[in-house]
Amino acid sequence: MRVLLVHPAFPITYWGFQHALPIIDKRATLPPLGLITVAAHLPPTAELRLVDLAVAPLDDATLAWAEVVLIGGMRIQAPSMHALIARARAMGRRTVVGGPAATTAPEEFADADVVFVGEVEGREAELWAAITGAEPRRVPAPATRPALATARLPRFDLLALDAYASMSVQYSRGCPFRCEFCDVIEIFGRVPRVKTPPQVIAELDALYRLGWRGTVFLVDDNFIGNRREVALLLPALAAWQAAHDRPMALYTEASVDLAGEPTLLAGMVAAGFGAVFLGIETPSETALRGIGKTQNLRRGPAEAVEILARAGLEVMSGFIVGFDSDDANALAAQRRFLAAAPIPLAMVGLLTALPGTALWKRLAREGRLRAASGGDQYVRPNFTPVMDERALLD
């Protein structure tokens, strides 16, 4: 069977980096790791093609070649996903959608023939049956999440490597914390599952053989979520880097309490990590307590950033405005913090209520939800904020 995997387009938002990419002569920041992971779990007899709309348009000839079209993406990509579904179905092609957007809100993709919810590992036969079937169906996620020891090597060979600013590797899924606004724990759970060190090394080997040299993003939402296991991975990464003359510059995402783990921090630097993205969110202790992000209260964010920067990690960070406790004074404090901290890249966005999160459920109970989020954190909030909305948007 001829299977076409399509990564939808990003609108012009923070997620697409469309104004920055021409400066470095790249088409996209990161490859569609989810799709090339799914591709690895399809039968070897399947004929595969991949189109990333950030890299190249989807032409009619390629769509006509396909017997089935697999589409996966985030909520911010939903308009493009629906356009792709309509275009494929107009040509009589079976459509299968999955990924985070379809997993958190499968009811929003009734226009697809198949909605595949959840992760692919251990469900290869189920996915293939849905792909090759004739009837529309929704494939629900199983009650238990898969062990990542069963994850297969992503199909990096399907990518046009030169089009991307960085490559991606995933080590773990899940996070042990309870941040109210976060959908990661709803999708992947609160028990971080990890790949073995040999699995991660095999992925770096594959990229190396394909000629990749440069930055690699470990896309884990919290790289240190399972600290015992990551402590075993870091020496293996350091040894691989040394054996290959340190060809990969690594970066990842972690919780702020990395600053309180000097052994892990030193191990990350030795393994070739040069940057880390932190979810600082706000310097307001009141807001952090309100959203359940208690891990950020163990030390001040300025101190945490200073520790990481001095250790050798460039700190990027996410910030949020619009918490229930926010007012003009809280936003002024946020600005002062950003002006003083050594953070070269800060993502500051409005609070968004994502489907299935504790925040979504609370706001629904309070009658404050307006609509589903489109995934863009720079538009009017999808709920009624406590703070004066005009002041918040300004």
Helix-strand pattern:
EHEHEHEHEHEEEHEHEHEHEHHEHEHH
What is the distance, rounded to the nearest whole angstrom, between the alpha carbons of the first and last residues? 52 Å
Helix content: 25-40%
Category from helices, strands and their pairing: alpha/beta
Number of helices: 14
Mean pLDDT metric = 96
Low-confidence stretches: none
Broad shape: globular
Q: Could you give the order of strands across the largest sheet?
A: 2-1-3-4-5-6
Number of strands: 14
Q: Report the β-strand fraction as a percent range.
A: 15-25%
Rg measurement, Å? 21 Å
| Biggest beta sheet attributes | 6 strands, parallel
Description:
Helices cover 32% and strands 18% of the residues. It has 394 residues and is an alpha/beta fold. Strands 2-1-3-4-5-6 form a six-stranded parallel beta sheet, with helices on both faces. Helix 8 runs parallel beside helix 9. The longest helix has 17 residues.
In short:
The chain is of the alpha/beta class. It is 32% helix and 18% strand.
Give the tags.
alpha/beta, six-stranded parallel sheet, 394 residues
Set down the secondary structure blueprint.
Blueprint: E1 2-7, H1 33-40, E2 47-52, H2 60-65, E3 68-72, H3 78-90, E4 94-98, H4 100-104, E5 114-116, H5 124-132, E6 137-139, E7 167-169, E8 172-173, H6 184-188, E9 193-194, H7 197-209, E10 214-218, H8 227-243, E11 248-254, H9 262-270, E12 273-281, H10 285-290, H11 301-311, E13 314-321, H12 328-340, E14 345-350, H13 358-365, H14 389-393
Parallel strand pairs: 1-2, 1-3, 3-4, 4-5, 5-6, 7-10, 10-11, 11-12, 12-13, 13-14
Antiparallel strand pairs: 8-9
